[in-house]
Here is the input.
Amino acid sequence: MALFGCLFLLAVLLPHHNAAAIPHHGPATHDYRDALTKSILFFEGQRSGKLPPSQRVSWRRDSGLSDGSSMRARETLLLCFTPISSAALCYLVDLVGGYYDAGDNMKFGFPLAFSMTMLAWSVVEFGGLMKGELQHARDAVRWGSDYLLKATAHPDTIYVQVGDANKDHACWERPEDMDTPRTVYKIDASTPGTDVAAETAAALAAASLVFRKSDPAYASRLVARAKRVFEFADKHRGTYSTRLAPYVCPYYCSYSGYQDELLWGAAWLHRATKNPTYLSYIQMNGQVLGADEQDNTFGWDNKHAGARILIAKAFLVQKVASLHEYKSHADSFICSMVPGTPTDQTQYTRGGLLFKLSDSNMQYVTSSSFLLLTYAKYLAFSKQTVSCGGGAAVTPQRLRAIARRQVDYLLGSNPMGMSYMVGYGAKYPRRIHHRASSLPSVAAHPGKIGCSQGFTALYSGVPNPNVHVGAVVGGPNLQDQFPDERNDHEHSEPATYINAPLVGALAYLAHSYGQL
Here is the structure.
């Protein structure tokens, strides 16, 4: 512990004037620009569908080209051959595209939508600092938002999953070879899913801001769809995993309910449209939707903390006085992560890593770091600090120092000297829990690799043949240890929702050190 523990304590407990110097003076600890480039490249390795000529991850090929066809057949029978229907009522379900959210071949709509919300937020807040990487980041957002437009193409229906998770997980095969059922699951008025619907609305609204200047027509289409989807989410209330539990659980059950997503979705629509209707919605429903709840874990399931930070911007930056209480709500969340404050509730490893849960803990590290940097930006603009009680004010500089320490740990400044981003640094995970990365590419092995054949690779100790550059894995355990075993999905599996907020954090750090 000695060295790394002491460095962490210095970073967060030094007097504020010293802490302010940490992110801005002295040599950069890491090449944040290189890490930014790689964190965005990762998304190309997760693509599903027909890959474009600009595809840079060459060990991937087209996959999932018939996604949606199973639902198309069912819907055609339902809508085109009933006595009262006509050909005009027939429609196609095209779900080709999008992302595999993690190391399997599933397209789970709930975490996919959250990943796109956070990737878009990264671009909205810090895209101006990305320079040559901005177009790649926009491309990554568009690949996801194009898919979400397809998934919401039909009114009062959202296609929220492609693939049978149990059957998919019974195989270890490349997405290019997959022959497991590509079953489509949906929500509608009779099978509501407010949580996934409101998250999808948030993603579409956030993406519209990314393209507002570069492609206004596309941005208008995104925000119009976001409005319609949010209206559906709010009108037909229910948790999506209530009716779809056999298919979405235990993988992505909605444990926190749907109140957080309604607040989050309304916050994004307010930011994207400036329509007073959404401001009124927040004012009238905020408390009922949990604005002041003390749930301080921000991730694909619970969005309360992110909503508080986002709404607090309207008060701090846009001077919307009626939202003043969200400054206190946001402060409460931030204070829970600042060591030494009266309301500090966050556990850190001895090496200094924020530790929430053993399963894919790095997602909370990246999402929390992003919120720290984003809130610091809002506070600096408004010349305010965080009030954590006890008379001490926490400055934006201190929040940046804490966030930077987390990113540095992720990139290799930790007891193991291990970068948890694949392809960054000299020592990084070589056996990640990822089907496409762990099996020979189609170029190297043109023949089909069957469902059960791939398990030889799963249990092998040989490094993955395809280096999935930019993939950030779940990370070490509470003791700062990482075994680098492919079958250890809790620690070795990458995910889009780990990388998405990291993109923004790396852009800020690269810029602050003059690397961009």
About this structure: The domain at 32-74+93-510 is CATH 1.50.10.10 (Glycosyltransferase). Strands lie at 107-108, 157-162, 184-188, 347-348, 354-355, 386-387, 393-394.
